[in-house]
Amino acid sequence: MRPPGAQTLRVLPTAEAVAEAVAERLVEALARNPELVLALPTGRTPLLLYRHLVALHREGRVSFSRATAFQLDELLGLAPDHPARFAAYLTRHLFQHVDLAQERIQRLDGAAADPEAECARYEDALAAAGGLDVALLGIGDNGHVAFNEPGPTLQARAHVAVLARQTREANAGLFAGEPSHVPTHALTLGMAALLQAREVHLVATGASKADILRAALRGPLTPQVPASFLQLHPRLSVWLDTAALGQNEAALS
Ligand code: PGA
């Protein structure tokens, strides 16, 4: 079954090769448009990618000096100095090593007194930046993209999300392995920001992602698998290692 949108599927032998290829793709995009507006994910998957981007920056092959970066999502209710904040992750793994201008780093404030107002502020900041040129996304084991979690409906705009049990388990590593210590809520860009991005790059590595990828990329569009809506995107690139492709070769080719 062909997907309804225009998907480019790239399968590389290892997670390392995926990271290298996506990093090169971003270097090209930044060379073409130094004022690129990016949405950036956290989690395990992008770690290698950020390592490559930092190395390429050190080699003088890429500059972020005129680019804008939006954090995709953030855990709600952590103290501003909590090391598990996704903002801290992005600083640690990317921002502190490259030349992004502080004023063009857009962070969701997970300690905001009024989270709804914080989401509205973030939408305004995104609109002021002209929307996303590139949304770089991972996929949760439950099919979430950013923290657009499975449920009866999806939300277009930035919002406060209730985290799925599976998501809290997946993030337990940030909280000494204890899912109950993971915040119950998060802030996230909504589906519209992702679907309106001029390019979407979905990156998934490892065998544990094979089943959800099949559902997301070839299954019916359903809010129970939020990533399935990416099938509608006119410029979706999917980057997998062979482990994430798993037994899906026939279904995805
Ligand atoms: P992961 O997270 O990269 O740690 O697997 C992906 C996601 O939840 O979007």
Ordered list of secondary-structure elements with their pairings:
Elements lengths: L6 E6 L2 H18 L4 E4 L5 H13 L9 E4 L1 E3 L10 H8 L11 E2 L8 H14 L5 E4 L21 E4 L2 H6 L14 E4 L2 H5 L3 E6 L5 H9 L17 E6 H4 L3 H4 L1
Parallel strand pairs: 1-10, 2-3, 2-6, 3-5, 6-9, 9-10
Antiparallel strand pairs: 4-8, 7-8
Helix pairs in contact: 1-2
This protein binds 2-phosphoglycolic acid (PGA).
Please tell me about this protein's structure:
With 253 residues, the protein is α/β, with parallel strands linked by helices. It is built from nine helices and ten strands. The protein has a single domain (8-252), classed as 3-Layer(aba) Sandwich (Rossmann fold). The chain has helices at 15-32, 46-58, 86-93, 115-128, 165-170, 191-195, 210-218, 242-245, 249-252; strands at residues 7-12, 37-40, 68-71, 73-75, 105-106, 134-137, 159-162, 185-188, 199-204, 236-241. The strands form two sheets. It has a seven-stranded parallel sheet with strand order 1-10-9-6-2-3-5. A three-stranded antiparallel sheet has the order 4-8-7, covered by helices on one side. The mean pLDDT is 96. The structure holds 2-phosphoglycolic acid (PGA). 2-phosphoglycolic acid (PGA) binds next to loops.
